Amino acid sequence: MRPTGQLHLGNYVGALQGWVKLQETYDGFFFVADWHALTTDYDNTARLSDNSLEVMLDFVAAGLDPEKSTLFVQSHVLQHAELHVLFSMITPLGWLERVPSFKEQQQNLPGKDLHMYGFLGYPLLQAADILLYRPAFVPVGEDQAAHVELTREVARRFNSFYSLKGKPIFPEPGLLLTPTPKLLGTDKRKMSKSYGNSILLSDEAAVVEEKIKNSVTDRPKLTDHGDPDRCPVGNLHQIFSGPERLAHITQGCTQATITCVECKALAVPSVNAHLSPIRERRRDLAQHPGRLIEIMKHGAAKATRAAEATMVEAREAVGLLRIGAVKDSAITAEPGGVLRVPSSAKEAANLQEWAQIITAAWVKGANAILKPDRPGIFITRNGRGSKVGVHAAAEKNKKWEFTLEDRPIQTLVLLAVDGERIHDYVLPPKFVSNVWKQFERDGASVRIRMIRSVAGALLELGNKQIPIQEYASAYLPLQ
Ligand code: SF4
Hints:
This protein is α+β, with helices and mostly antiparallel strands and 479 residues long. It is 43% helix and 16% strand. It is built from 16 helices and 15 strands. The protein has helices spanning 9-22, 34-41, 48-62, 79-90, 93-97, 100-108, 117-120, 122-131, 145-161, 205-213, 232-240, 243-254, 260-286, 289-318, 351-365, 429-438; strands at residues 29-32, 70-73, 137-140, 174-177, 333-334, 338-340, 370-374, 377-380, 387-394, 399-404, 411-418, 421-427, 446-453, 456-461, 464-467. Strands 5-6-12-11-9-8-7 form a 7-stranded mixed β-sheet. A hairpin with a 3-residue loop joins strand 5 (333-334) and strand 6. The longest helix has 30 residues, at 289-318. The radius of gyration is 27 Å and the shape is elongated. The two termini are 32 Å apart.
């Protein structure tokens, strides 16, 4: 969603409402597309950051749940820009010039100079936005289905040039068509902020009432027959009124038995009943800006992990040199960052030696330069006392048990060996400090148990089980 200001009912019924439903079934990524806003509004950015906050507020107020979905601001995840650069290298200009909105927008905004690379290239930024997360589906309204087609073409082209051991990097995403009920603006044109004809998600009840009462309708005389399909108030009933009220106004309008004043008066409570909880959540969150900042940070970190996992493969496939990621020929990394157990591990004399071989293999293949400190403990290249504990364990009865002797580490890496493969979980400092807290009473050594589950891996902390799947192969630069 572009941050052009507070969201209106058109944005809500056309997209947001559908996303809120999807989050019950899908693991969704929803973001405020602030770089996209620059493609047309590059010369007026005074309200850009405020608008991004407003849209994030609307996201959460409308029911997007930061626990269920990943909510973030595009420019907080730099990988979007990086993948855009890679795509811009391989996409023929003709593909971009024939995107219908390239010409349409230029016609719609005649006073604006849109002869900018950013504007021409925005479909590639969009392709990067989508493909970074390698989604199964992109939720779009029918009118935007064509936009996703270009993304699919870009994915095919990238895959035709680059792959990892013959495996494509970007699966082509499918379409998840979300219903986009028709909703006219209060002046009967398309609802748009620039026309001044929209009802905002944040409008107070009295403002909503005022806007509905002043809406333009088609029946100047009571005896005129109307059509709720072509009336902004009729549209509101179709979306927000219950079946009985809708049947009542549809009949009244088409057969000229109710007045528009009556019909509007009935639309007001329907709309306000729907907006009231949204308004309340918005007001509450606006009073606690710290909470919103936490939501954005959490979302950006989660999105970055997923995006970085994709970029590790994309960079490698393209053939870019990554310092610290030069792999030993004995270690074969599979897409997804899974390492194979080196054959020398079979000859290990004891468990300790076996763990050392596994750990060394991971350190060599990791996306960071780590200097050994003590067994199992490494220091990141930039030093500054940042310590990384790397521990390996083999699977026994669907469980891995790690024993840690050394507590003052910032990042914990658990290497769960399953047959021939090493699955790594890079746990950030915040997570690690929780581990220490939970185990404070356990004395000198700390035992951590990881359990295989249908959804991935679970870490056992006290009597709690915490999913840690999202940390799998998270090769973020270790600070
Ligand atoms: Fe619109 Fe209602 Fe009037 Fe029909 S009766 S034209 S739906 S306001």
